[in-house]
Design goal:
With 272 residues, this protein is mainly α. The protein has helices spanning 2-6, 21-35, 72-77, 81-89, 93-100, 105-125, 134-139, 143-151, 154-162, 181-194, 207-212, 216-224, 228-235, 250-271; strands at residues 38-39, 64-65, 130-131, 165-166, 197-198, 201-202.
Length: 272
């Protein structure tokens, strides 16, 4: 074990130990193996429940792929505040996930919820292409589904993202061009199965990668629906080509990590 070799899990590490990226990666990998109920590949077949909106972005669905960076809360609950503090000092959750090729827990939660939302909408709509109003969903007993629709932009925005119609009540309708709910579900499932990451986000496979994987059907639809960047944006995924593209706000993370580190330092000192 990495920690044991260096001086013991959560114990006194040699000076500069946590400043070495490979040490931090080894500790995180070991923590995931020993502490996290995880799966190598998440079965994106509708078995992932729609997380209750409002539970907080630190929460994640029960099935967590192994390439998801554990939350600070999960590390500290398991007695590994040393790893949590090292992540904070190394730039914060988003920046460390980006550098080490992990998904952030927040992004995994978002993608899992979006996938489950697409599955639930397919079941509710059947052959229809009209997105019900929130009132309709709640009257039908689909309160969790209505909350998930709100969380992902509301009826008008979600309908535009997924190429659905909706009952317009006021204002101008949002138009993003043609799309497909089934295509959205299948593309998210393929992206999760591929397991690629960019800037802490689940990364969408490109057209060529899809064709090489035998999914020429999806590749053709990506091109028909506006290309890789437009499709990735509508699905909430990182685009295949990330040159010059940035998501993680490392400056904001640095400020947050310093405040978090100071808070835990003060608490530790108060306990002594």
């Amino acid at each position: 074990a990495a920690a044991a070799a260096a001086g013991g899990s959560n114990g006194c590490m040699p000076f500069g130990y946590w400043n070495r990226t490979h040490n931090l990666r080894a500790e995180i990998d070991e923590f995931i193996r020993e502490e996290i109920v995880a799966v190598g590949r998440c079965p994106m077949d509708g078995s992932v429940p729609v997380p209750e909106p409002g539970a907080g972005d630190d929460a994640a669905p029960g099935l967590v792929p192994r390439n998801t960076l554990p939350t600070y809360r999960a590390m500290r609950r398991a007695g590994r505040g040393d790893i949590a503090n090292a992540v904070l000092r190394s730039g914060g959750h988003a920046c460390v996930a980006s550098e080490l090729g992990f998904w952030t827990a927040r992004d995994w939660r978002y993608v899992a919820e979006f996938f489950a939302l697409a599955v639930a909408l397919e079941a509710r709509l059947g052959d229809s292409v009209e997105l019900p109003t929130l009132v309709q969903l709640e009257r039908e007993g689909h309160g969790a589904l209505a909350k998930a629709v709100r969380r992902h932009g509301g009826v008008s925005t979600l309908a535009a993202r997924l190429g659905l119609r909706f009952r317009k009540t006021s204002g101008d309708a949002i138009r993003w061009g043609p799309f497909s709910l089934r295509f959205a579900r299948e593309m998210v499932a393929v992206a999760v199965e591929k397991g690629m990451a960019a800037e802490g986000m689940v990364q969408m496979p490109g057209v060529e990668a899809l064709r090489e994987a035998g999914r020429g059907d999806l590749a053709g639809l990506v091109e028909a629906f506006g290309g890789e960047d437009d499709v990735a944006r509508r699905l909430g995924l990182a685009p295949p080509n990330v040159a010059g593209w940035k998501w993680a706000n490392c400056e904001a993370e640095a400020a947050a990590r310093q405040a978090e580190s100071d808070r835990h330092r003060d608490r530790d000192q108060a306990r002594r």
